[in-house]
Amino acid sequence: MSAAMPSTAWQQYPAASTSRPAPLSQNPRLRLLVHPLTAICAVQAALSLSLVWSNTAYIDEADYVWLGHLEIAHWLHGTSWPSAYAEKLFSGSPIIYPPLGALADNIGGLAGARILSLTFMIGATVLLYLTAFRLIGRRGAIFSAALWALSEPAIRLAFATFDPLSVLLTALSAWFIVQAGFRHRSGTFMIAAAASLALANATAYSGIVIDPVVIAFAFLTRQPGSWTRKVAAYTACFVGGTAVFFGLLMTVAHSFGGLLFTVIERNVADYQSPTPILSDIWNYSGIIMSLAIIGSIVACNMEILSRAALLVLLGSAAFIVPVAQLHDQTGWSLDKHLAYGIWFATITAGYGCDQLIHRSPRANRQFASICCIIGIIYIAATSWQSAWDRFHAWPNADAFISHFKIAAAQSHGLIYVPGQEANIAQYYTAQGRDLKRWSAALSFDPGGSQSRLESYYTTQLRHTDYGLIALFYSTTFASAPELPEEFLLSQHDSGANGGLLGLGENAEEPGLQELTLALEKDRDYYPIDHGSTIGPYNSASDNGIYVIWLKKPEK
User: pTM to 2 decimals?
Assistant: First the structure.
């Protein structure tokens, strides 16, 4: 490794002279307007905004924002809310993001909540630029910010869940750590860094996976010119402060049960082979990971030991989440989780791009710059396409929502919507705020033979006051998308082969067939006309229909 000291790391840049008015070209507001970071954030916002209105709420979005509304109502009016459910089953503290998401939803609906998340991600982009600027210089920081802002996780996380806020707080912690390296009162900045990281971890427990990188980052950014034992003690205080703040937050929120259930004792149901997981990892972050590797190799050959170690650490952050996902044998929420490591890895990737241009012969620097820009454009195009696909991986619930609102307003008694679709129904309807009206007693898997199951559902319908029941059916339209939706609905009228079940792929869904048959035989329940209670429930890859059953009003 070269013994030459880095030119940009850990330096305090002098403030500009204020002895005379700055010319127009140096006007702070004008410079901010034409700054490359402004263009990067504008492109990031445009790409993410194209997703905001592209599909209805995902089940997690609906769940978190719906719960936030219930929490706010509880705080203001003392109404009930499912605290045990939220505190034990959420993968983040329910008192941090859900109320924020609900406030944004009150202002602008789901789009408002998603735009709030987009704001968090743009904030992470700005913090990345400011952090990278101190470590690798202006040009490298611009490349880092562009690579991050145009990556799939950054674009896709215009998403109304706690992940964007957690990423922002983790980025804020890293920025505080860098500030502590050259500012006076460094201890204050390190306390702020510890509090920010603890809040990030409490916001989304998945963010804990990146904590070892942040801790090592805190150690390596303060090592040059410092006594190693003193730096180690300083880092230990940072770790201790983070643990204390995190413990306090989790205690106040009563969320240790959720941490235990979703992280420590997590039972992953969607096991996958390594091949599709590796394929997704490459699609979401392969190019950035490759650039981080190149940047790490360049740093090892050109920088002093401490600086090279820092850049290698940052580059390796891109591999933390993939290793964890491969260990768990699941690609669940992979792209969201990748955001933590990519944020750090793009600093090394940006360093590599900067060195490519800096070390090129003067005559070839323009060509090298063009190649880097073309690469970033390619990343933006492929990332946006991947994010678009993710936003359309769940069913579009527009038809269901519009019809369910009408049916719910006309119904009386209990409401039953199976599984996670209940989150969608509760979020989009006023009846979702009245927890007493929702019942999950019609479980799809009470056990027993087919005849016993049908008898069980018949008894439940007879003795329990269900005023509205919504059911969902997968269809074979996924393999024949050219068939019109009216064909399936007409088959329901014919009653052939079990009606709805005859064309479906629902034989392996326990209880659905028996509950459907019980409803069809019960004269008190009926789906109204097709225009109001039966319709499509399709995603980009799967197709289905919903049926809303209403109970006849008592005479």
Answer: 0.89
